[in-house]
């Protein structure tokens, strides 16, 4: 029981750390405002692959690296995860460089609702009355936020659904996080390389016409991408999927604060109301989760 509790606590720390990093990451991508979003995305994939490959080369033998790809189910999951996470990365970069941080944060407020729905449908996780109330409050808050925009928030919905689906795949994929990320970036690598080469040939790149600052920023995107994803994959295997979903509110809260107070994006009354509902939902869910943990800790008579 102590070992199980320790693993659960480790999972909480991993996921909380990931969401804090992701909440602050827009500040990094904002440094590349003058770079095309597709160029940023292509290099994000390339340098993530390079970093993960180096780590695998140090930690594993070649035959161990090739082993997961022999399983057909794994290959399908790798390809699906590769496509989904590329959509998510591209949408997020586009949101940041086009000054849509608040809509991006909305997407990650909606995401836990999708995650919780999937956790009940796919993983058969049960919700008590307090958790159901928290879901309802969060849902109302998000709906208010959507109505406040008077339009379909395409960026927000794309981010929400793509990352929820990615989380499901990572939960079901029985491969360690480093190996999984290697194959995810490997399968999308050809497309990334083709675009990066095209950008260099057309004069829109930063490596042939050497620009040190942009080169370092683009290369650093690999670490900024890989490290949090590795922690996320490890964390999701240690805690229940619905808890992963609600902890996600850490990230959009940080991003929303940055969007409003640092980058001066508009923050209206609908956002204020939404915050009230979402934080009320988070408090109730936290109480429910603590109660569940205490029940699990009670000795069986």
Q: What are the secondary-structure elements, in order, as H or E?
A: HHHHHHHHHHHHH
Strand content: under 5%
Largest beta-sheet details:
none
The Rg value, from CA coordinates, equals 20 Å
Number of strands: 0
Estimate the mean pLDDT confidence. Answer: 86
Outline? globular
Number of helices: 13
Structural class: mainly alpha
Secondary structure: helix percent:
over 70%
Q: Which residues form runs of ≥5 with pLDDT under 50?
A: none
Q: What is the terminal-to-terminal distance?
A: 16 Å
Structure explained in plain terms:
The chain is mainly α and 301 residues long. It has one domain (2-128, 153-267). The chain is built from 13 helices and no strands. The chain has helices at 2-24, 26-30, 37-59, 62-66, 72-97, 101-121, 129-149, 154-172, 177-201, 212-236, 241-247, 250-262, 269-297.
Observed structural traits:
301 residues; 13 helices; mainly alpha; single chain
Summarize the structure.
The chain is mostly helical and 301 residues long.
Topology:
Blueprint: H1 2-24, H2 26-30, H3 37-59, H4 62-66, H5 72-97, H6 101-121, H7 129-149, H8 154-172, H9 177-201, H10 212-236, H11 241-247, H12 250-262, H13 269-297
Helix pairs in contact: 1-10, 1-12, 3-5, 3-9, 3-10, 5-8, 5-9, 6-7, 6-8, 6-11, 6-12, 7-13
């Amino acid at each position: 029981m102590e070992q199980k509790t320790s693993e659960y606590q480790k999972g909480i720390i991993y996921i909380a750390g990931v969401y804090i990093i992701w909440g602050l990451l827009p500040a990094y991508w904002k440094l590349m405002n003058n770079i095309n979003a597709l160029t940023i995305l292509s290099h994000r994939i390339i340098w993530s692959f390079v970093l993960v490959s180096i780590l695998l080369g140090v930690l594993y033998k070649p035959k161990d690296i090739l082993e997961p790809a022999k399983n057909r189910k794994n290959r399908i999951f790798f390809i699906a995860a590769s496509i989904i996470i590329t959509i998510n990365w591209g949408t997020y970069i586009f949101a940041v460089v086009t000054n849509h941080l608040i809509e991006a944060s909305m997407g990650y407020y909606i995401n836990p609702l999708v995650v919780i729905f999937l956790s009940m449908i796919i993983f058969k996780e049960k919700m008590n009355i307090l958790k159901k109330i928290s879901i309802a409050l969060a849902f109302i808050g998000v709906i208010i936020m959507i109505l406040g925009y008077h339009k379909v928030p395409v960026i927000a919905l794309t981010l929400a659904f793509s990352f929820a689906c990615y989380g499901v795949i990572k939960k079901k994929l029985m491969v360690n996080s480093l190996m999984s990320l290697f194959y995810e970036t490997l399968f999308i690598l050809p497309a990334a390389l083709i675009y990066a080469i095209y950008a260099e040939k057309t004069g829109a790149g930063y490596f042939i016409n050497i620009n040190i600052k942009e080169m370092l920023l683009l290369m650093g995107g690999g670490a900024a991408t890989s490290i949090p994803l590795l922690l996320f994959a490890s964390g999701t295997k240690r805690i229940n999927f619905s808890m992963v979903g609600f902890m996600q509110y850490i990230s959009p809260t940080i991003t929303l604060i940055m969007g409003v107070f640092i980058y001066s994006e508009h923050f209206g009354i609908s956002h204020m109301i939404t915050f009230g509902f979402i934080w009320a939902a988070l408090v109730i869910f936290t109480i429910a989760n603590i109660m569940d943990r205490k029940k699990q800790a009670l000795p069986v008579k």
